[in-house]
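Subject line: Sequence and fold of a protein, written as structure tokens
Body of memo: The sequence and its backbone structure tokens, given next.
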Amino acid sequence: MVKFREERSILGLGLNTGSFHDRYFILSTVSLRMYKEVRSNRPEREWQVKNLRVYLGIKKKLRPPTCWGLTVINGSEKQEKPERQQWYLCCDTQTEMREWFSTFLTIQYDGNVWPADAVQTRVTRALPADTRHAL
């Protein structure tokens, strides 16, 4: 069970509405599903994991119930009008937050979070022996 809050504005004035609510989430290799209750058969909402950007942390001004949370942004740019949804998932512990974040990354990068071609070998930065700086 995770605390959930959606970023909404009143009449585009930038005034936040709503608060954090308990929701049940299931994260699969394809989608993130949100259920109102554990016993629900049909998800209240569903998002494609590949379209989500996940960031560690939640704005303090939102007054989250705990400091352990994720900011999730869904940017569907394939439509005529790009839509941007933003919401917050608040976890009970730091370990739970890290597990959610690492699972998101693992799914989004097909388990290849640290690809071999991106890891550079350590390069020593030794100057050649004849290089001297004069004043």
